[in-house]
Amino acid sequence: MASDIEKRIEELREIISDHDYCYYVLADPVISDSEYDKLYKELEKLENENPQLITPDSPTRRVGKDLTKVFNPVTHKVPMLSLANSYNEEAVVDFDRRVKELLPDNEKVEYVVELKIDGASVSLNYVNGVLKTAATRGDGTVGEEITNNVKTIRSVPLKLKMTKSIKYSMNDFEVRGEIFMRINDFLELNREREEAGEKLFANPRNSTAGTLKLQDPKTVAKRKLNIFLYSLISLEDELKAQEENLLLLKELGFKINPKYKVCKNIEEVLEVCRAFEKIRDNLEYEVDGAVIKVNSIIQQKILGSIAKSPRWAVAYKFKAKQAFTKVKNITWQVGRTGAVTPVAELEAVFLAGSTISRATLHNIDEIRRKDIRTGDKVVIEKGGDVIPKVVSVILDERPLNTMKTDPPEECPVCNSKIVKLENEVALYCENPECPAQIKGRLIHFASRGAMDIEGLGEALIELFVENGFLKTFTDIYELKKRRNELIQIERLGEKSVDNLLQSIEKSKSQPFHKVLFALGIRYVGAGAAKKLTGHFGSVNKMISATEKQISEIHEIGPSISKSLKQFFSQKHSLEIIEKLKAEGLIFSSEKRKINNSLLTGKTIVLTGTLTLFSRDEAGEKIIALGGKVSSSVSKKTDYVVYGENAGSKLIKAKDIGVKLIDEKEFLKLLKEYLQND
After folding, report:
1. Could you check whether 435-509 and 512-582 share the same CATH topology?
2. Does domain 512-582 have CATH number 2.30.42.10?
3. Which of 46, 86, 207, 625 has its CA at a distance of 20 to 30 angstroms from the CA of residue 462?
4. Of 461, 453, 456, 564, nearest to 510 (Cα)?
5. H-helix or E-strand spanning residue 302
6. CATH H-level superfamily of 322-413
7. Which of 69, 66, 81 is nearest to 454 (CA)?
8. In the prediction, which pLDDT does 383 show?
């Protein structure tokens, strides 16, 4: 039988958790701060006297004493995809059209419209009703664990309210949401930092993201972070609808944003989006749009996703906020591809939560079209509320004797000749050894989404390039030979150099798709890199593939295939790959041995609406069975897997005699394979 002390501890935990819920989730406290503190101190005293009774879900465990030295990788149960953006109502109507085309004929579609919070995405895993891990979005597949820091957010329940009315098991599930900082809390934080002589945060989103990666949970707890949860994912339970999920989240004790609406058609969706945009400036937190989701989870599964985003949801971005300022100067910067782009240096102005002092001018054609000159008063806005850009010039206030803006004839960094490629508006520095290009390529290579070399940031790369330590990717892996030189550099020291070298060594374990992305091949983003490596399995097969073979891969277009072949046709690229191989980087996908199945070594085309899988899920299963997925039907196609409302691909397959497999037969193949494997 539990002792009286144990019972009192349990009682206090439940009382305090209930008060946390009332205060931080419902914003409706029922006791005074002094009464709450009295209960908390009693629990703290009892736990200190009886440490054997302390549990991880106790309210006293929110702020840990230990520093977080390493943010461990966490694999999400389901990838955290980013949303496709729409910037006008026509694009929203187009989204509705695409949804209906992909669903069975005459199927009704309901939508849920939610505010798009401008914060940092997080995924929380609960097992048996207790918070197990919290992780950042990361690359969408693997994030970084930030559990200790998320525990400090009082509106995040450590233990769930599992009432009898909840009809799902909820044994092991993920909830996703947006961590944010209220505008007033952000302004107060910046005021404190200014008084302390510390660097100010640019906006609430940056301060939130930075806070979540602090090593000391005590500092995080002082930052007053908040959260709204909007997604519930369970691989065990058959969830029915997004609206139901929001209500279930609320019942479990999570904080959801109450300003969501269920709409029966796209006209209602647009009305809600307009209404949300009108209230954006009256909210106590930053929002940059609305999120439109198909309500039915079954329909969501049918619609599936593309490489980067779900087909069943879209973000409607609000019109950008604008401000007036002056162009102090127009400078030119060189990127990793050699593209030379103009930048407006501006008189600093506060806009949409951050101070703007620079804005992109895109290219010389854009400058000439708007006739932007040094000294002009201009209207600026944040494109998609992220990237500042110059919208127009106030011609009535243009100073006398201003000069038209002309492009440079030489690279502003290396003085090499600048060229304009055929059918492109961009200007390029023709020198691949230009220090700016080298820096850009190295920064991309070491970035979190690529090789993830912790500690090798922009400032350090710049320093190493200037000292002649780095010119190519392989030079990064040669830095260990310069350890003694690096230690002598001011502000580095022995410990930080050793940590950097360990991080470089650790990066060698990055999977093939990350390595391919890190190479910085034009048009080959993270999603495309995954599809390419999944299809070919090794860099050697990729190098020997024709442009046509590459473009036949599902959702890999001609721009990617042409760029990939161009990259692999260069002697310098092949030399880099061989050197990186020698350093131990991974250039093949490790696959478990696949038993022969009907699909092994075969080329398969997917067509029509699949009800049991999304196209991407079906494609992954085909690859797991040793097959290849193609986007077009030809005489080389071995099978066509078809669903409902299959069109021209099915007709062509019948005409040329390609074997057809319906969804039931495809599922049977999968079950047979899994049983025999």
Report:
1. yes
2. no
3. 207
4. 453
5. helix 297-303
6. Nucleic acid-binding proteins (2.40.50.140)
7. 69
8. 59
571 is catalytic: no
Q: What is the pTM of this model?
A: 0.59
18-40 burial code (b ≥16 CB/10 A, e <16): ebbbebbbeeeeeeeeeebeebb
Extract the tokens encoding 548: 């046509």
Q: How many CB atoms lie within 10 A of CB 470?
A: 24
What pLDDT is recorded for position 667?
75
- CB of 438 within 8 A of CB of 461? no
Place of tokens 């803006």: 405
Distance CA(425)–CA(297), nearest Å, equals: 44
Burial of residue 416, with CB atoms counted within 10 A of its CB: 0-12 exposed, 13-18 middle, 19 or more buried? middle
- Which superfamily, per CATH, for 603-676? BRCT domain (3.40.50.10190)
* Torsion sign, CA atoms 373, 378, 381, 382: positive
Residue ranges in the chain modelled with pLDDT below 70: 1-2, 64-69, 307, 353, 383-386, 590-598, 611-617, 620, 624, 669-677
Closest CA to 500 of 485, 483, 517: 483
Report which secondary-structure segment, H or E, holds 234. Answer: strand 225-234
Q: How far is CA 492 from CA 203, 457, 459, 483, 495, in A?
A: 30, 13, 12, 11, 8
The single residue of 41, 69, 100, 116 carrying the catalytic annotation is 116
Looking at this protein, which amino acid is placed at residue 251? E
What is the CATH topology of the domain spanning 4-61? Helix Hairpins (1.10.287)
pLDDT of residue 341: 92
Q: How far apart are CA 68 and CA 213, in angstroms?
A: 9
Domain 86-317, second-level architecture: 2-Layer Sandwich (3.30)
Tokens representing 121 are 């995405």
Give the count of beta carbons closer than 10 Å to the beta carbon of residue 488: 10
Quote the tokens at residue 336.
């990793």
Whether 585 and 515 have beta carbons less than 8 Å apart is answered as yes
